[in-house]
Amino acid sequence: MEPERWLQVEDLFNRALELEEGRRAEFLKRACAGDDLLRREVESLLAHEKKSEHFIESSAVEVMGKIVAREASVTGRAPKRIGTQVSHYRILAQLGSGGMGVVYEAEDTHLHRKVALKFLSDLQAKDPQALARFQKEAQAASALNHPNICTIHDITEQDGETFIAMEFLDGATLAEMLRRGPLELTQLLGIAEQVLDGLEAAHNEGIIHRDIKLSNIFLTKSGRVKILDFGLAKRSVSKPAAVDIPTLEGRLTHEEDLSSGSVMLGTAAYMSPEQALGKPLDVRTDIFSFGIVLYEMATGCAPFQGESTGMLLLSIVKEAPEPLREIKPDLPEALQQIVDKCLQKDRNERYQSPSEIRNDLRQLQRSITSEKIAHTEVQEQIPEASSVARAEPGPVSKDSSASVDAIDTDSARKPAGRMWKIRIAVATLAIGLVLFAGLYAHFHETYSLKSQDTLVLAEFTNTTGNPVFDGALREALTLDLSQSPFLNVLSQQRVTTTLKQMEKPADERLTVRIAREICLRTNSKALIAGSIALVGERYTLNLRVLDCQNEEILTSVVSEAENRNLVLPALHRADEQLRRNLGESLGSIKAFNVPLAEATTSSLEALQLYSQGQAERQVKGSLAGIPYLKRAIEIDPNFGQAYASLGSMYLNTSQWALAKSSYRSAYALGNRVSERERFYIEFYYFQYITDESDTSIRVCNEWIRSYPNDSIPHSRLGAVFLALGRFEKATQEYREALRLGTDTPYSGAMLAYLRLGRLDEAKAMFDAARSHNLDSDFLRQYRVTLAFLEGDDLTIRQQLDWAKGKPGYEETLLNAQSEIEAYHGHVVKARDLEQRAKSATAAASDRERAAEFDADSAWREAEIGNSILSRKYAMQALAVSDSPAVYARVAMASARAGDNSTSEMIAARLNADYPHSVMVQNYVLPTIRALIAINNKRPGQAIAVLQPALPFEQGELGFGNLQPAYVRGLAYLQLKKGQEAAIEFQKLVAHPGVVGLSVTGALAKLQLARAEEMSANRDMARKHYQDFFATWKDADIDIPVLMQAKDEYAKLGYRRENVRPLIGLFGPSVLAPDIG
Amino acid sequence: MALRSNHEVTQLLKAWTTGDEHALEKLTPLVYGQLHQVARRYMAGERPGHALQTTALVNEVYLKLVDCRQINWQDRAHFFAVSAQLMRRILIDFARSRDYQKRGGGAVHLSLDDTPSVCYEPDAQLLAVDDALKALAAVDERKSKVVELKFFGGLSIAETAEVLKVSTETVVRDWRLAKAWLLRELGERN
Description:
The structure holds two protein chains of two kinds. By secondary structure, chain A is of the alpha+beta class. Among the domains of chain A are: 49 residues; 210 residues, Transferase(Phosphotransferase), domain 1 (Orthogonal Bundle); 163 residues, Rossmann fold; 234 residues, Serine Threonine Protein Phosphatase 5, Tetratricopeptide repeat. Chain A is built from 49 helices and 16 strands. In chain A, strand 14 and strand 15 form a beta hairpin. In chain A, helix 11 crosses helix 39 and helix 42 packs antiparallel against helix 43. Chain A is globular. The termini of chain A are far apart. Chain B is built from eight helices and no strands. Chain B is mostly helical. Chain B has one domain. At the A-B interface, helix 1, helix 3, helix 4 and strand 2 of A face helix 2, helix 3, helix 4, helix 5 and helix 6 of B.
């Protein structure tokens, strides 16, 4: 259309619309003056305008979201509460949802008033701690009756669900209000005063809120402030309630603190320093959080920020916030002083009660008002006087600028690592996983399946023309059959390695011919060939079990589905029949037979994506599999096994936080998976997420009881024992796993033998893995460690050359090489290699791994006395990673470098996050605390806190093994008890296999020398000094610890010129530490 | 969010407003997040237009991206324009990928039970709107922009006016005509 013409159309359209409908035709007729085309064009647009009232009025996101929701509701998820009645409440609409739960608008049918009902979210309802907190919220808040605290009407339990009925509020939270920017000063003061009133009421009852933040402060439309969410509230120890508070269930009387020693509660951004440090709290923690709220109301910005939780907390503990008036210069000085005083790190320097703040705020209010009046008067008298007088400084003391150590914010970029155990985990996982594990068919006469007979699954022949069945059906069959403790399906890992031997790509389609060849090569008994066809409008599924030797059909099952959606249930029926035909007992089938739709997923698409993800992982590694699994979960958010598999992919790629949340989701969906999947998920959850060895051992033992021929629980047990330092038990389990043969935990077994100093057996494990064509970076790393222990420099070099340019391998071996250089005091080289290892991870965008390397560096630098450099690396690591591996290293490094507060802060986090972790509680935390005690010159205390570490000190951290012994030795040195110190350092010198490549192995020799010197064993001392100097014979000369050692050696009165020649005398024989 | 220097923010805005892949990468998860939030809300039977949800997504994105202390209103308008464009791309890609999945990964053959019993195909509808909008752009660029900002970007009338530097009355009129035009175009295509 010509532009002019279009302008005409537009003009007529708009003018016509201004007229009443009846008069438009006439108007157009006249205006178009015989141009019928023009008239018809406008008329047709007008006609469509009439129908367009609702057209695209909702935004595209809204439209799309609705579609997604409609589909999801067709597949039948999400509880529907709207419109239902619980107790005497009729639920009308959902108001919102948060971390804790979902809030609905409801009508109280007895009292005919509106209420808000708060339910725990599904996830939280499964967590007894969350439930307890939820009930506490009701109890704590219902004890409070104050206009500025949201009133609790009732707490009720019905059909196993607990919910709170509370005051219905109409308005918005401060968080919502602040999205529009900071508040006006007068509004801010009004809100602040009411918050303080509410807080004061709570504090007077001895209740601390502990989670004061913008989103917990609500402003009703009438302007009333209400403090919400007493879910974390706690009775203050320092201020016991004056009166007996009536409680709903009378439980408040024995007040147990649900949070202490368990999870760190509260919102990180609003934590007080004492909260961040995990110290006991009193009412003044709320004062600090209130200060943050005040700051945000005034500026719209958060005072403390950080790229990771760790950095954020560090900022809270150490940094002074940017002064209020630097962000908004027009704010009164007095407000800045009030906020500063709230935000004092030391709670004794803060306001001690809400009423103190209120007094100052009121004074500020008065000064503003009087100034306004004065200002108005001035303006009236002398109009040209335009400079605005500042509000008087308030009554706050001036010394409120917090003095804080500056933090090296530049170095706050790099990511960090994985837990010590994960290294082992991944090692034992070798490559593939886990689902298809050993199940052995019971002996059955008809088909002569013996207990070691294995089945190979071929891909389905799909003649329906619908590709959704490709991959999905084989995956479904695999998952379904793996429930059976009697059938033994060849693992995907074995399939892949066999394909490799056949010189086929790992993603080769498993036709019956290929499957048969795999079957023969792996000595399997039979293969299952499935097919799906569309006959008329029905789907026909056929499963045939073929003997690999002669292709004789052992059994065959047919099943039909009326439509696409019934294919998976039909397959499940076929599987059940097949299991029966192959001789599984009815009892067993009954016990292990969750239908796919419940156990796994009912979505073919999700299943297909899952299967593609597994295949990608086999071929290209975990990183490639992740997107598929993510999409599978998008399609079916209840696909528990997909979360678990995604979790292990994240774990394998060191994406700690994501792994954690995936496993959490998998665990929460625990009742929707099959028995075997449940074991698998529970094991990972308890071993790697909550790190509770006792529970993970229990899970493994149950697993073994249910699936006695499965090797996977044995190799998992091996990893657990290895981590606990119980190497003998670990090798037993690994041997059992290898005997059963469905899993190949060679690298785990190899490490266990290394730790025991049984180097030949370790070498045998490496060779066995290689002969099976298995490889992993861990295997290579352990090979280098083995060569290091044997003093076999040639092999080390060969391995390094081999790894060059191989992503995943290169950085691991560069890191190992860096450690070896550091062991010999070649610190500059070590740094350079670590840097190269980091660059290699950048190529693989493995930020967590890079952070782990930084944490390693921090620890190394701290050990050799470079505390500034150590701190820099520590901050780099901390900026990126919240992983326990990085936390543990950085905490030890910081303490070793004399930075107690950083160390304490991280220790508090570890303590809160891993309350039941054997290694965190008995190894990591005692070591950190002992180091802090040593820094504080309290060696006796250090030795006492290390007591629980004794049984675990050989445990596997992936770094710094035997640290508790080393630190205990340091404490004894400080106590001037040379003999006791020598015993500790001797542990490291005598167990080079346990210490591995760690630089403490070399330094232990020096410490041993010092210990011997202290107990006047001069000959021994001299020998150990020389040992150390020999190990560091061509070390960089400017290493603090080396310079110190040389000094003291010189002072001991040995002739100084003896030093150098003696080093030469020792040479390489000392380089290979004796094998214990 | 970390404190950012002025310089960094400027760089970021520049990258964002030129619509590079980095911006797309940042926005995609946010749009998906919003999508799922909306979906959850519908699934829970929540009434639409609840107060919590009315803030435009791009507004939040903007606040997230540029530190709260450096809002420059001219940048903001430009930013909204580019965001709406990117959101359109993301949503259309999303709808297209779903459409593709439904058709069995682009296979030629569609078996009977692959055809959903619902006659209305909303994904396809969204794609059709996108197509029709391209046609509208050829006729009247500004009206297509109004639709892009309002429908895909989720902006209000006032925000749309701010971005396009026209009065709100103009936006209201443009919007009315654009809707009628698009609806007719869609009718003709079906």
